[in-house]
């Protein structure tokens, strides 16, 4: 499905009837060949915006819900000393570690070349309860394409963990899209998907948490500010603007005060 190298319909069905963690373990071998992977265009736009926005290159970067490591090259180009990826799926981490193994065979993937940036370490953990060893260790934290896996009630705890991971003055950055208009096919597709997932989780255990409309900018900003962040946004102009002039995509920058 999606491409010849992607998952089959049957494989996606098995994933959808598994727990969130087990589902991604199953999807890991073919994940990079699905639309679920963050597009390179989005990663490039965020990297460019961060390079222009950060006053100095960060020493250490952390990718939360890193999956197979799509955003790791971004952090390796931006950061000087250390890059860490965290995910709760052992299968996804195995794929990421295979790609970015510590320069043993840099020819295996250009992004693994030690000349590109610092080496990478991967941590198997739930980002809602980060290991204490990661607290206060990072200048830049990013996350891409994972927030549909957090229920609104989980956001405050998750943001508190990010706050703990950052050094004073550090930044938590991620893209956030404008909500589709009620009259658009995108709104109805997202609403329909969320409705199906709510029915599935009401009738089937274990739950698979994935929703498209549980991460609105207003609520996210309020929860970040309550967690102690100073929040700004920057338009990602390459994705255009809506008829009212607002950007289709923004880079949200949540800074832990120095």
Automatic annotation (TrEMBL):
Manganese is among the record's keywords: no
Keyword Transferase: yes
Entry-linked InterPro entries: Methyltransf_25 (IPR041698), SAM-dependent_MTases_sf (IPR029063)
GO MF term set: methyltransferase activity
GO biological process: methylation
Source organism superkingdom: Bacteria
Alphabetic keyword roster: Methyltransferase, Transferase
Gene3D superfamilies reported in the protein's UniProt record: Vaccinia Virus protein VP39
Annotated CDD domains: AdoMet_MTases (cd02440)
Methyltransferase domain location: 62-170
PANTHER family according to UniProt: METHYLTRANSFERASE, OS06G0646000 PROTEIN
Protein's UniProt name: Methyltransferase domain-containing protein
């Amino acid at each position: 499905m999606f491409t010849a190298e992607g998952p089959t319909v049957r494989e996606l069905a098995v994933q959808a009837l598994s727990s969130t963690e087990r589902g991604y373990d199953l999807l890991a071998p073919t994940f990079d060949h699905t639309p679920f992977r963050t597009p390179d265009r989005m990663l490039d736009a965020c990297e460019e915006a961060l390079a222009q926005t950060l006053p100095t290159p960060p020493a250490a970067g952390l990718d939360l819900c890193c999956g197979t490591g799509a955003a790791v090259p971004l952090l390796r180009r931006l950061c000087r000393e250390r890059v860490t990826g965290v995910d709760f799926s052992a299968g996804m981490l195995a794929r990421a570690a295979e790609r970015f193994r510590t320069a043993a065979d840099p020819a295996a993937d250009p992004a693994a070349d030690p000349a590109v940036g610092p080496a990478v370490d991967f941590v198997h953990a739930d980002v809602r309860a980060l290991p204490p060893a990661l607290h206060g260790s990072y200048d830049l934290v990013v996350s891409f394409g994972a927030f549909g896996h957090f229920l609104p009630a989980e956001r405050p705890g998750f943001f508190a963990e990010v706050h703990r991971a950052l050094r004073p003055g550090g930044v938590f950055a991620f893209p956030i899209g404008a909500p589709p208009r009620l009259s658009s096919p995108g709104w109805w597709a997202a609403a329909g998907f969320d409705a199906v997932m709510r029915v599935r989780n009401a009738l089937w255990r274990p739950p698979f948490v994935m929703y498209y409309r549980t991460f609105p900018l207003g609520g996210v900003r309020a929860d970040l500010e309550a967690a102690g962040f100073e929040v700004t946004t920057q338009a990602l102009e390459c994705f255009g603007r809506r008829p009212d002039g607002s950007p289709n995509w923004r880079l949200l920058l949540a800074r832990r005060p120095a």
